[in-house]
Specification:
By secondary structure, this protein is of the alpha/beta class. The chain has 59 helices and 33 strands. Among the domains are: 157 residues, no CATH class; 82 residues, no CATH class; 244 residues, no CATH class; 122 residues, no CATH class; 290 residues, P-loop containing nucleotide triphosphate hydrolases (Rossmann fold, 3-Layer(aba) Sandwich). The strands form 9 sheets. The chain has a 7-stranded parallel sheet, with helices on both faces. A 6-stranded antiparallel barrel has the order 5-6-10-8-7-11. Helix 44 links the parallel strand 20 and strand 21. The longest helix is centred in the N-terminal third of the chain and has 31 residues. The chain is globular. Involved in mRNA splicing where it associates with cdc5 and the other cwf proteins as part of the spliceosome. Pfam families: AAA_11 (PF13086), AAA_12 (PF13087), Aquarius_N_1st (PF16399), Aquarius_N_2nd (PF21143), Aquarius_N_3rd (PF21144).
């Protein structure tokens, strides 16, 4: 059996170590320490920068005295002399050098160059550290244009390569921040149309102006504007419009001057390539810049440069060049912004070739006659064109280029003509056919191989140090086209998946311990892994012939067998959980002699362990003991038992046909062995982390389909145009009148929800207004303006509209009401209603979500965003009964919370459907899965038909009317409806009377089982008629349900019934974003349709995983039917999880679509009142939001009024010093632990449990996985086995706990050397906002109090003592102490009472050590007269205090036992004593463990 993990050492488990996000310098997986530097406490205290920083860091605001020499000293002595050391830059950034000194004292007329460079360096450092960079410039924005101009001039003038590199990085950061108006206004002038002054000739411009005449108008306007400038303004304008051209000329000069190993020049050229790519990859910057790049022939110059030919040193440069070449020829019209189809691209290329043929025929008839007479297909390739151009000499090549408006001279030396090679290259680049990205991606294996996993430079990056660019796409604010959007996401998602797979493989291989056998050198495995098993037998089963038109096998299957005998039952169950479509990996390991040694990173992981091959595969079926496909649910029970008792498991797997083709071609060329006969390890991954293949397949499918984003959303989605354009107020399809149903509780609630608006009753009688309300809104001015452009309608309609507009003012709401119809006499007929009193902001969000368009709702912690989402869905369901709404979340937990709340509202359960595996976790007896709903429908059918039979009997109508849905329908049409109409006619003819209604009602017999009699003798005729109508509505609904169920009689298979339910019956369909990606192809093929999408946790979902759920249906008549997109999230909390820091930071992969829209300025409704935490606890994170207040329940509910029993404060930061001489430790890279904090947290948990706090109300959080495991180990040793303590509700990392809450949270910050990733304020907000009633934070005060980003929260925390203060003599929940009655108020000086408490605490220490503290008896211990304040100095004292409480409880238990024994007779005494002593034994056992 495998060895069990020791509880005393919290080492990373087989799958746990990867969650910690590396933030500090750590050991990379392929070599020495790398990563982004975070200054430690020691650095901040001892470094020479710290001494200089005292001049500005001590003051609360900007320093008042300016010393130019100080900036000189910092720059020259600390930065230049230390070669711009990252540690020095980080220290300066942390000390707020930019905010408190550099920018406040910047003077455009007097500040020297070093001042400007220092600002540039600080901005770059802030971007590298992932903290806000531009807020400092808001203080004196008028100085920014002059500063920016100085930077531009330095970019051209500076000769130091390292500084030039820093300046280019600054420009990259600027162009990545175009959402900032201050930055945008400066940057966009550099890429305007006026840059075309730098084109080779006016003829080049004229060609563009001829194609786009509007550009000529704009050009003339710019020229007039230029002529009106004075000389100084003209000089500045010339400088700005030629800046990019001059930069490119300077870049080419540096590129051509590179000699071997000139690292600084190489680094600059790589950065400049990144800069060019960024400008090409955004439409606003690309529009005119692309023409300039083509004219300056940058791609051709780079491709033919001497440096590019050096394959060893130019790897990254060449990769960047490929990306630049791709974007310069991207399929988009740069002037209109329209994506070009494949056919349009073919036409453009054909037009270029045709023009070439005409020139060849007219001017080079002798040399190029064959080219002129060839068909276009014959001359589209590079090889064919080159063959024809070889016939031209140098002069003829120059002439040809000039006729094609191609530059023929060197951009750095206009007098020098291009060489022949250069002329040929520029011609070929312009005329050759581009390779299709779609074809390349289709030929790409979706499973990574060993090269993609271990040789790709980007995937190998364990830490991104930001010192070099990467050949990665960036997720910017804007995208060129939908194809560009998908392509960038495809590449990044694939690389991130590869990185995670590599980590899993490395972990499993290390645990397997491969080594070369002593006898024959064959690989043996000395260890074991729960995620990987040695293969016993591997056999290829089938290699199917290629499909028509393809050259790869259509299917490749194999059987893989392995032994599970050595595994525990739990691990065997994990292997048995593998099902069809799950992904496995096959590994070939050929161990070397040194493989058994510990890998030190000096050689590659692959080489050290002999990892030769990695291939992915998909499970087709499980093979049973009889050699046939096997199903755990459907197979014979005996076969299942035989399978489970056997030692081997066999899977039939499908291999990647693209990869198989590549492998076979490689084997033929090299004559090597067949890869597929060498596998010796099969590896599985956690199911939730193994969905990469279907996501990649979905993106690939989308790239090849006719994508149709709704027209109203298209421009905003790509990041162009007016960010308000998709808001409902800008759309013509506004919902003018909304039935809010149960949204408002009463008229006062309605009035309070629309402040500043007048409420006008539609019938003029406001006193008659009661819920529910129908509200008519005034037409927005924008919509009215757009409506006026429509064609003229009838005069009558126009008069009606004018009359209506006059009746309703812009500040007026016309409100009507209606009586909720009686739906029947049974309790289930009474609709559920909303009980939440929504705030005005929440109502605005509900109103916006009910209207068509894009709605963004920012929901800070505890602001009821789930309730808002549920109410939006309910309103859509009731207002638009024929529309279908798709509900999507990131996690199953959030989806289930939403779904449970929807069930509780007035939504018919037959219209609800929950897809995915999380459905079984719903807290309801009903099943809302596809097959569960089908079963429910069939069961409902039986009960409904029985009701039809009962109705027929009550009406005394013979026959089998309830035999089928069809016969029931006939019965309704021919018997029920006529009877009802006859009743209505009789009542109408003879007048409404109580007696007539009660005697004539034809269905009284059916409703005899109603809980109360239908008609009351003392009731009114009106009430009786209402009851009768309600009864008929009940019957109508019964037959309506039967009509819906009738399809299930015709459909025979569960599959068909489930799909019918999904596509026809369900009106609200819920799924996770992962399920949407997994099932997109299936849903589209089924004809799935929906009109609205509501996405919760939108800020936690990757861009592409947000996009996929919007495209789960085919367009109708070329139009996407989506009417509403409602995104609900909080960009101030944690973003999507991206484990590779290179993709996270450089590729910006952690940016969600929600965050991108907020950055773009799309209108967002920010909920402004929280109801989760006590008000003073919420102050810890309220500063991150515009105006976050409290809901009434925070002050009104009893639990918020009283203090936490046993604690002096409801929240505290507890300083934890070194424990046993240690602070943070790292048993392995990124696996960070702090034993002192773990012990302290567990001791406080024990204290709370001894006071009576329920374990389920306590959560322990930490910021690192290593600490989570350590805390769990300490709990296992001290608490888990003992029912007195048990385990807390959750022990988790902050990242995993986002979206959840508990009454009391104990938070361990872990770090003592560097702040780490808690410096990300989003993580801090999550950490501080999980608790409702009590929050106790354990950390190192000196480290966190000096962190600028965390300062607002820690200022509030540190107003309270940093030693834990207890309140003795209280037990949970008995306390009469109010929350405002702490001994030491926030922000106040220490009171006499607290001083006395400290003295009393010191006196009590001895008693605590003797075990006499913490008295617990059955008296009223919440009395203020018996309680006192008690200060805990350190971890040891807390342990002693808890031990004393436990000892007193033991003594108390002994006293109770003795009293019990004395109270019973002798015979009973003998039987009862052992049972009564159980508690004593438990307490003694707990004490023994704690003493150890």
């Amino acid at each position: 059996m495998p060895p069990k993990h020791s509880a005393k050492k919290a080492q990373p488990s087989d799958k746990d170590a990867t969650e910690d996000q590396p933030q500090a310098q750590t050991q990379g997986s392929n070599g020495p320490p790398t990563g982004s530097h975070r200054p430690t406490v020691k650095d901040m205290q001892t470094d020479s920068v710290a001494t200089l920083a005292e001049a500005w860091s001590k003051s609360e605001s900007a320093a008042t005295e300016y010393d130019a020499q100080l900036i000189e000293r910092v720059y020259n002595d600390e930065l230049v002399k230390n070669d711009y050391n990252v540690a020095k830059l980080a220290l300066l950034e942390v000390s707020q050098y930019l905010e408190k000194y550099l920018w406040p004292h910047y003077d455009p007329s007097h500040s020297p160059t070093v001042h400007v460079l220092s600002i540039v360096l600080m901005v770059n450092e802030k971007f590298r550290s992932r903290v806000g960079a531009w807020s400092a410039f808001e203080e004196s924005p008028e100085h920014f244009p002059a500063f920016f101009e100085q930077v531009l001039r330095l970019c051209l003038q500076e000769s130091d390569m390292k500084l030039k590199c820093y300046l280019v990085v600054f420009m990259i950061n600027c162009f990545q921040s175009l959402e900032n108006p201050l930055i945008r206004s400066e940057c966009m002038r550099l890429v305007s149309l006026s840059t075309w002054h730098s084109l080779i000739s006016a003829a080049k411009r004229e060609v563009e102006f001829k194609e786009y005449p509007q550009l000529l108008k704009f050009w003339k306007h710019l020229e007039k504007k230029f002529d009106a400038y004075d000389k100084e303004q003209q000089a500045k304008a010339v400088f700005e419009r030629t800046w990019l051209s001059e930069m490119m000329k300077g870049f080419v000069a540096i590129l051509e001057s590179i000699e071997q190993d000139e690292e600084e020049k190489i680094a600059y050229c790589e950065r400049f390539m990144e800069f060019l790519i960024d400008l090409e990859a955004q439409l606003p910057t690309r529009r005119y810049f692309n023409t300039l790049v083509e004219d300056h022939q940058i791609v051709a110059i780079c491709k033919l440069s001497k440096f590019a030919s050096n394959k060893e040193s130019s790897v990254l440069f060449s990769q960047l060049l490929d990306i630049l070449a791709f974007y310069t020829g991207f399929e988009i019209n740069g002037h209109t912004g329209l994506a070009l189809t494949k056919e349009e691209m073919t036409e453009i290329h054909a037009a270029r070739l045709s023009k070439l043929q005409r020139i060849a025929f007219a001017d080079f008839r002798e040399e190029l006659m064959d080219l002129a007479m060839s068909n276009l297909r014959a001359i589209e390739s590079r090889e064919a064109l080159l063959k024809h151009f070889e016939n031209l000499n140098q002069e003829q090549l120059i002439q040809l280029c000039q006729l094609l408006n191609i530059r023929t001279t060197n951009i750095t030396n206009p007098e020098a003509d291009h060489s022949r090679i250069m002329l040929l290259e520029v011609l070929l680049l312009q005329l050759e056919k581009r390779h299709s990205q779609i074809e390349r991606i289709n030929a790409l294996p979706l499973y990574p191989d060993e090269n993609a996993l271990f040789e790709d430079a980007a995937v190998k990056e364990e830490m991104y140090s930001a010192d070099r660019p990467l050949a990665l796409p960036k997720l910017n604010l804007q995208f060129l086209t939908l194809h560009d959007y998908l392509l960038r996401n495809f590449n990044l998602f694939r690389l991130e998946s590869n990185y995670e797979i590599r980590q899993d493989i490395e972990d499993a291989v290390r645990r397997l311990g491969p080594r070369a056998g002593a006898i024959d050198g064959a690989t043996v495995f000395s260890g074991w892994s729960r995620m990987a098993a040695p293969i016993s037998y591997f056999k290829m089963v089938e290699v199917a012939k290629p499909n028509l038109g393809e050259d790869k096998p259509s299917l490749i299957t194999a059987d893989v067998t392995f032994n599970v005998r050595k595994y525990t039952e739990a691990i065997q169950a994990e292997w048995e959980a593998i099902r069809e479509h799950d992904i496995l990996f096959l590994l070939t390991i050929e161990a070397q002699e040194e493989s058994y040694e510990h890998w030190d990173g000096k050689v590659s992981f692959r080489k050290h362990y002999g990892l030769k091959h990695v291939r992915g595969c998909q499970v087709v079926s499980v093979i049973g003991p009889n050699g046939k496909p096997f199903d755990y649910k459907k197979s014979d029970p005996k076969l299942i038992q035989d399978h489970r008792t056997g030692n081997t498991r066999t899977f039939r797997i499908a291999l990647d046909s693209n990869q198989y083709k590549i492998d076979q071609e490689a084997a033929r060329k090299s004559g090597g062995s067949d890869v597929y006969q060498t596998f010796n390890i099969v590896l599985r991954r956690q199911p939730q982390e193994n969905n990469f293949k279907p996501v990649l397949e979905t993106i690939r499918d989308l790239m090849q389909s006719d994508l149709m984003v709704p027209e109203w959303l298209h421009d905003v989605f790509l990041g162009y145009g007016n960010p308000n354009s998709a808001h409902y107020s800008q759309l013509k399809r506004q919902v003018k009148e909304i039935d809010f149903r149960d949204t408002f509780l009463d008229l006062d609630h309605l009035k309070a929800s629309f402040p500043g608006m007048k409420i006008k009753a539609k019938d003029g009688d406001e006193s008659s207004l009661t819920a529910p309300f129908v509200v008519m809104f005034p037409e927005a001015p924008e919509a009215a303006a757009s409506g006026s452009k429509k064609k003229k309608g009838s005069e009558k309609a126009k008069k009606e509209k004018a009359s209506q507009n006059q009746e309703q003012a812009q500040d007026e709401l016309i409100v009507s009401t209606y009586k909720t119809p009686n739906m029947g006499p049974y309790p289930e007929d009474v609709p559920n209603t909303n009980k939440v009193r929504f705030t005005p902001t929440q109502v605005e969000a509900i109103k916006a979500g009910t209207n068509p368009g894009l709605t963004l709702v920012v929901g800070p912690p505890g602001t009821g965003k789930t309730d808002v989402a549920v109410q939006i869905i309910a309103n859509l369901y009731n207002n638009f009964p024929n529309q279908h709404t798709l509900l999507v979340t990131h996690s199953n937990q959030a989806l289930n919370q939403l779904f449970e709340k929807i069930i509780a509202l007035d939504v018919d359960e037959r219209h609800l459907l929950r897809l995915g595996h999380g459905e079984e976790e719903l807290n309801t007896e009903l099943s809302f899965s596809k097959y569960g709903r089908v079963t429910s429908f069939l069961e409902k059918r039986v009960s409904l038909l029985a009701e039809v039979d009962r109705l027929a009997q009550s009406m005394e109508i013979g026959g089998e009317h309830g035999s089928t849905c069809e016969t029931a329908g006939y019965f309704y049409s021919y018997h029920v409806v006529p009877k009802w109409k006859e009743f209505e006619s009789k009542v109408a003819a003879n007048g409404e009377s109580l007696e007539l209604i009660t005697t004539s009602f034809p269905f009284s017999g059916f409703f005899i089982n109603a809980p109360v009699p239908l008609f009351s003798d003392c009731g009114t005729a009106e009430a009786a008629l209402d009851v009768a109508q309600g009864c008929f509505r009940h019957l109508s609904k019964l037959f309506e349900q039967l009509e819906e169920v009738s399809a299930f009689e015709l459909l025979r298979t569960s599959y068909d019934r489930a799909n019918y339910l999904l596509t026809k019956e369900a009106k609200i369909i819920a799924m996770t974003c992962t399920h949407a990606a997994l099932k997109r192809r299936e849903l589209v093929n089924l004809g799935f349709k929906y009109d609205n999408i509501v996405m919760e946790e939108a800020a936690q979902i990757l861009e592409v995983e947000t996009f996929i759920p919007m495209l789960l249906q085919d367009p109708e008549d070329g139009v996407n039917r989506l009417k509403r997109v409602i995104l609900i999230g909080d960009h101030n909390q944690l973003p999507p999880v991206v484990k590779n820091t290179a993709f996270q930071q450089y590729g910006n992969m952690e940016q969600s679509m929600f965050t991108r829209f907020v950055r773009l300025g799309v209108p967002a409704i920010e909920l402004d009142a929280q109801g989760r935490a006590r008000s003073d606890m919420a102050d810890l994170y309220k500063w991150r939001y515009k105006s976050l207040g409290d809901l009434p329940n925070v002050t009104e509910r009893q639990e918020y009024k009283f203090a936490n029993p046993g604690f002096l404060h409801d929240f505290q930061f507890i300083n934890v010093n070194n424990y046993k001489g240690q602070g943070e430790t790292a048993p392995r890279p990124h696996f960070i632990q702090n034993l002192g904090e773990a012990e302290y947290v567990v001791a406080v948990y024990q204290y709370m449990r001894l006071l009576g706090y329920p374990a389920e109300k306590i959560t322990i959080l930490t910021t690192y996985n290593g600490q989570k495991d350590l805390i769990r180990d300490v709990l296992n040793q001290r608490c888990s086995w003992n029912p007195i303590f048990g385990r807390p509700a959750t022990v988790a990392t902050v990242d995993k706990y986002q979206g959840q809450q508990n009454d009391y949270v104990l938070l361990s910050l872990v770090r003592t050397k560097a702040v780490g990733h808690v410096r990300d304020v989003r993580r801090l907000v999550v950490a501080l906002s999980r608790a409702r009633l009590g929050l106790y934070i354990f950390g190192r005060q000196k480290l966190f109090e000096n962190c600028h980003e965390l300062e607002p929260a820690f200022k509030r925390l540190l107003k309270r003592p940093t030693k834990l203060w207890l309140k003795t003599g209280e037990m949970y929940p008995n306390t009469a102490r109010l929350i405002g009655a702490e001994a030491k108020a926030d922000g106040e000086e220490e009171t006499e009472d607290s001083k006395a408490g400290k003295k009393g605490a010191k006196k009590d220490k001895k008693g605590a050590k003797k075990g006499k503290a913490g008295k617990a008896d059955n008296e009223e211990e919440g009395s203020a007269s018996t309680s006192k304040d008690y200060e805990i100095q350190d971890i040891d004292q807390m342990g002693e205090y808890v031990f004393g409480m436990m000892k007193e409880q033991q003594q108390y238990a002994i006293q109770q036992q003795q009293a019990y024994l004395q109270s019973i007779s002798a015979p009973m005494e003998t039987d009862a004593a052992p049972a009564a002593g159980a508690d004593v034994e438990q307490a003694e056992g707990a004490m023994e463990v704690d003493q150890e």
